[in-house]
Design goal:
Length: 77
């Protein structure tokens, strides 16, 4: 059976804001839309993270309002 690979043209990409770990030995990054804090720390090494951008495939995030304003606590599950 023949399986056609998707070409790069079919995958829509856009410049996306991400948080990248500042530790040179750590390669962790997270999309800004999926971070729970205004200024996240690296979950792997605990270092601070800095805002940057990457060309990434488009994802639909319907929970844009998940980030809460400062001085607001999250409900306990």
């Amino acid at each position: 059976m023949y399986a056609r690979r998707r070409s790069e043209d079919e995958i829509q990409k856009m410049d996306t804001v991400v948080w990248s770990c500042t530790n040179e030995d750590c390669k962790v990054w997270i999309r800004d839309d999926y971070s729970f804090e205004d200024t996240p720390t690296c979950t792997l090494c605990g270092s601070s993270m800095q805002r940057s951008s990457k060309l990434l495939p488009v994802l639909m995030n319907n929970s844009q309002d998940w980030k809460l304003p400062k001085n607001t606590s999250r409900p306990k599950a």
